[in-house]
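dumping this here before i forget
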Amino acid sequence: MDLLLQRGRDALANGDTTEAIGHLTALTDHAPDFAEGWNARATAFFQAGQFGPSIADIARTLTLNPRHFGAMAGLGAIYEELDNPEKALAIYRAALAIHPNLGGVSEAVERLEAEVAGTDL
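structure:
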């Protein structure tokens, strides 16, 4: 598991999302109960612009680990990309309820609160 996860992360760091998805798919096939494998593949799908598969993998991550604040933050980012600030804001708030100091998420909440309220920044 560790080797496949590291290979996937290394491929992502090198910008090769296709290779990353391949390694991380092998990981999820061999260790379907390992939440971090699903989360890492969700990240690879996100970076490849494949939001549907990314959301599906985040759902699996959160089924296995409902307190996975990193997966929540990723889901919030997807909903921002999909121009759904209300849903992104709700998800970011849920992540902050678990990890109040989650980097960048507090700022995203402030920005989205202003956007949802109709205030120009």
